[in-house]
Amino acid sequence: MCLERFMIQVNSRLFYKVKCLAREQIHGGFAQSYALLPKYAEMIKATNPGSYALITWTDSGGNGEKFKACFITFAAQVKGFLGGCRPIIGIDGAHLSGYYKGVMLTAVSIDGNNEIFVIAYGLVDTESIDIWTYFFRNLRILFAQYGSERDDWTFISDRMKGVESALFEVFPRATRRAMSKIKKYDATSFDYLTATEEQWSRYMFDRTVCCDHNTTNFVESFNSCTKDNRDFPVLTLMEGNI
Asked: Has residue 98 been placed in a domain?
């Protein structure tokens, strides 16, 4: 290895360490941030009546409790969705790039002006059927608290691990819309879905939904807005998403 390349690598590592130290001084440590989540949830509920904030922990086997997941939404978000948005819900997961990694799950809708409206979001340790079931159950509990027992929402998502099974367990009458561009990956599947007109032709979409979206672009647009925050401690991340 030449001296110049060696110096570049050393400088890059030094810069990264300085960056991490500066970030910790400004935003606090990652472990400290997770430890403050219960107080953060209580503060949300105390200062924003009607909001929903749940932090879930697991037993790490003699080493105390370990963070598993959280689900958070503000009263204005759920009221706005149930009272003024189209009954379509886009869901997606974005991987965190901070010290402890994890995934941020989001539920996003479209308002009357065809603009993005965030319903709820959560942080989880990984994506799985159990985790998505957790997310959907809390979403349904949230809706029920505001008087909506509806279970036939229209959901749209990527083909993420665990979504399909979890969704139909919690919302058994839900309508599904999937990503386009499937032909690029599997022409046979594309041909099959093209022939399934009741799910894939826009003229067959439920008229009460009043929305012809058939991709997750609007959810991914929200996720792109959070990209700069996804390597911060969780409290800074969540405050940046509000």
From this structure: yes
Q: In angstroms, rounded to a whole number, what is the distance separating the alpha carbons of residues 129 and 161?
A: 7
**pLDDT tens digits along 22-46:** 666 555 567 788 888 899 999 999 9
Question: And the tokens for 226?
Answer: 């959070």
Secondary structure (3-state) at 107:
strand
Residue 241's CB: how many other CB atoms inside 10 A?
Answer: 16
Provide φ and ψ at 73, rounded to 5°: -150, 145
For residue 162, what are its two tokens? 């665990």
Q: Which domain holds residue 97?
A: 30-176+216-241
Alpha-carbon distance values, 105 to 6, 85, 91 (Å): 40, 20, 7
Determine, yes or no, domain membership for 19. no
**How many CB atoms are closer than 10 A to CB 188?**
9
199 within 8 A of 193, measured Cβ to Cβ: yes
Q: How far, CA to CA in Å, does 119 sit from each of 23, 109, 195? A: 29, 7, 33
What residues form DSSP beta bridges with 93? 105
Mean pLDDT (the chain) is 79
Letter for the amino acid at 187? A
Q: Report d(CA 209, CA 198) in Å as an integer.
A: 15
Domain count, the chain: 1
